Amino acid sequence: MTSPTSHMFPPYPQADRQRHQAALTQAVQRVFESGSYILGGEVKAFEREFAAHLGAKHVVGLASGTDAIEVMLRAHEIGVGDKVAAPAHAPSAVAAGVRRSGAEVVFADIDSETFTLCPESLDAVLRSPKGRGVKAVLAVHLYGHPVDWRNLKHVANEHGAILLEDCAQAHGASWHGRAVGTLGRAAAFSFYPTKNLAAIGDAGAVVTDDDELAVRLRQLRVYGWKTRFNSEIPGVNSRLDELQAAVLRVKLGALTESVHQRRRLAAEYDSRLGGSAVVKPPVVRGGCEHACHQYVVRSSRRDELLAHLLRAGVPAAVHYQLPLHRQAAFGSNVSLVESERAAAEVISLPLHPYLSEAALDAVCDAIETF
Ligand SMILES: Cc1ncc(COP(=O)(O)O)c(C=O)c1O
After folding, report:
1. β-strand 83-87 against 58-62: which pairing, if any?
2. Which of 36, 141, 325, 330 is deepest in the core (most CB within 10 A)?
């Protein structure tokens, strides 16, 4: 029996920084000395390198993942008076990004196995008066699990809506051999410091293969400029800065290996918790490679279990306690059973590439003593 200790659970942002310390120091120094701090060579190089990593044509670096959702929608001329469908079990950033575009967000339920947008629920919502006329569907690869792309695409097509990806939690995931971020016409990424590919501040991007869309995205991030000081379309200020791009270039080189390590640790959890009477481990749908951003189990006694784990020194967490449709800022008067059940049952166990097997053992031991 291993007892958890705080040094077993180094916070991911610091551990990731330490792992890359020497290269990061060099990269940051290079930016300081360059004298170019906004939309310079580092951003261009990161955009090129991340595009090559994904097998995509264009990456447009932005200031955050929330901005990426907003700018991606605006690039599709979605705004005031339009509707966008999104899953109700997701971080607030999803709804906030949609609302920032000016569009209304319409919520659909999730699938009980994978926590991702449920095609049947989406279909029902798009047929309802509330969902009629939805222009885009934001498919969130939640916790790193790829959405049910084929079935969502079928539903979106049937209703004339465009299917867009939110890959903020899914760097390194793939669906039937295709990297997430390259499945639809455009995808939003976040590089917030806790993400699989993490900056040391806010950062995001939109990925697309569409040349015209890429031009619009680049215009939108700098005031809608066609040429300097000449705004052709109403834009914003949302630029990935040079320091963050330089940091991301360093960490991109280790992304594949770090996602593999996440998967190895998740497999350890699976084998230890497979027969647990206390928690139900996550399920990975066939054809999907999970990015293992979070390892999320269910428990019918979630709150008691969470208190027990925290008391035992295990930094477990809940993502997310309140579905988006129940939040005052986005509320809508609907009942979404699976999103509400997930909000009451989910618990994220510690998972990142710098955790040891002893740390995982300590988590599983603490669960067994519940
Ligand atoms: C699924 C999802 N979408 C969007 C975002 C927004 O990203 P950011 O925090 O970089 O604005 C996040 C991150 O919090 C996220 O997890």
Report:
1. unpaired
2. 141
Alpha carbon of 269 to ligand 1 centroid (Å)? 25
> What total of structural domains would you count in the chain?
2
Q: Report residue 357 CA to chain centroid gap.
A: 25
Residue type, 136: A
In a domain, 9, yes or no: no
Query: Could you tell me if 223 and 235 are in contact, meaning their C-beta atoms sit under 8 angstroms apart?
Result: yes
Is the per-residue pLDDT at 338 higher than 80? yes
Same domain, 199 and 133: yes
CA-190 nearest atom, ligand 1: 10
Q: Say yes or no: CB of residue 168 within 6 Å of ligand 1.
A: yes
The rounded distance, in Å, linking the Cα atoms of 169 and 190 is 8
Residue 273: is its pLDDT beyond 70? Answer: yes
289 phi/psi in degrees, rounded to 5: -105, 115
Both 271 and 247 in a single domain? Answer: no
User: From ligand 1's centre to the CA of 198, what distance in Å?
Assistant: 12
Query: Is the Cβ atom of 118 under 6 angstroms away from ligand 1?
Result: no
Residue finishing a domain among 206, 225, 252: 252
Per residue in 11-45, pLDDT (tens digit) is 999 999 999 999 999 999 999 999 999 999 999 99
Q: Is the pLDDT of residue 3 over 90?
A: no
Whether 45 and 179 map to the same domain: the answer is: yes
Both 168 and 279 in one domain: the answer is no
Residue nearest to atom 2 of ligand 1 (CA): 168
CA of residue 167 to ligand 1 center, whole Å:
9
Check residue 1 and give its pLDDT.
Answer: 67
Selection from 294, 307, 299 nearest residue 355 by Cα: 294
CA-nearest residue, atom 15 of ligand 1: 168
In a domain, 37, yes or no: yes
Q: Do residue 29 and residue 177 come from a single domain?
A: yes
pTM above 0.85, yes or no: yes
Query: Is 2 a residue whose pLDDT tops 80?
Result: no
- The reply to whether 217 and 353 lie within a common domain is no
Decide if 248 is inside a domain: yes
CA distances from 351 to 81, 146, 191, 291 (A): 41, 18, 17, 11
Q: Is the CB of 192 under 6 A from ligand 1?
A: yes
* Domain ranges, residue 105: 17-252
Residue 67 CA to ligand 1 centre (angstroms): 9
Residue nearest to atom 1 of ligand 1 (CA): 168
| 35-84 tens-digit pLDDT | 999 999 999 999 999 999 999 999 999 999 999 999 999 999 999 999 99
Summarised one tens digit per residue, pLDDT across range 353-363 is 999 999 999 99
Are 232 and 290 members of one domain? Answer: no
Does 348 sit in the ligand 1 pocket, CB within 6 Å?
Answer: no
